[in-house]
Amino acid sequence: MIDRTDPMAAAEAFLFDLDGVITPTVLLHRRAWAETFDAVFARHGAAPYAEDDYFVSLDGRPRFEGVATLLAARGIVLPEGDGAAADGGAGDGTAWYDTIRGIGDRKNRVFTEVLARDGIAPYPGSLRLLDLLAERGSPLAIVSSSRNAEAVLGAAGLRNRFTAVVDGAVAGLEGLAGKPAPDTFLRAAELLGVLPEDAAVFEDAASGVAAAASGGFGWIVGVDRGTGSGALLEAGAHTIVHDLEELMP
Predict the structure, then answer these.
(1) What phi, psi does 149 have (nearest 5°)?
(2) pTM
C-alpha cells in the first residue's frame, strides 16, 4: 500500500490516462465530437450539441459506448450497425449518422485527420513529470479508452516512455471492459508487474477515477482539466491537481 504522506516516492509504478493528462488531445477529441454530433443532432431534430455533453456522456468512455450514452440522453434510438457507413454510405443505403458505429467511426476519422494535420505536443508540466520518473527508472503505462493512443503517443514523440499501452484497441482484442470498470488499469498493472495497491493512477475523467478506485489502486490523482474537483473526489480521487507539475518535488 502506498504511503500517501509521500506517494510520489512510495509508488512502485505510475499509470496515466492519455487524453487530458499527458497530451491535450481532449481539445482535438472535443472538436471532432462537436463536428460529428452537430450533424447527427441536426439530422435527427434534437437539441444542439453542447460542451457539457462531452463531460457528461463522452469523457472517459469507450467511443461507441459514449455515442450510445449521448444518443440516449437526447432520446434518440439507433441500431448499432457495423460502421460501414462512416465515409458516407453503406451498401444498404444506411448513412453514417443513422448507426452508433457509423457515428463513432465518423468521429474517429475526423479526429485522425486533425491529428495528422496539426500534430500534438504534451502538456509541459506532464513532460517534466515524465522526465523525473524516467530519471528514477519508474515503470510507466498508458491506460486509455481511446483507440488512437498509439498514434497520439507517436505524434507526441512519447511512445518509448511507456512500457505498456492498454488502450481501446487492446481492450477490444483482449475482451477487457472499458472504464468505469477497472479491467484496463488492472491489465496495465499486470503488464508492469506490480500490485494495484502499489501503483499510482493519474486521471482527468470521473469514469477513469472510478475505474482506478474500483481496482484498489494505492494513489489516485484526479487531474482537473474541466471535469471539476468535486466530481473527481466523489469518484474516488485521493489528490486533486490542475497540472502534473504540481507533483514535482
Answers:
(1) -60, -45
(2) 0.79
Round to whole Å and give the CA distance between 141 and 161: 8
- For this structure, is 3 an active site residue? no
Catalytic residue list contains 17: yes
SS3 of 159-226: HHHCCEEECHHHHHHHCCCCCCCCHHHHHHHHHHCCCHHHEEEEECCHHHHHHHHHCCCCEEEEECCC
**Other C-beta atoms lying within 10 Å of the C-beta of residue 117:** 7
Residue pLDDT, tens place only, 184-239 = 999 999 999 999 999 999 999 999 999 999 999 999 999 999 899 999 999 999 99
Q: Could you give the CA distance from residue 46 to residue 36 in angstroms, rounded to a whole number?
A: 14
Q: Which of 3, 6, 17, 38 is catalytic?
A: 17
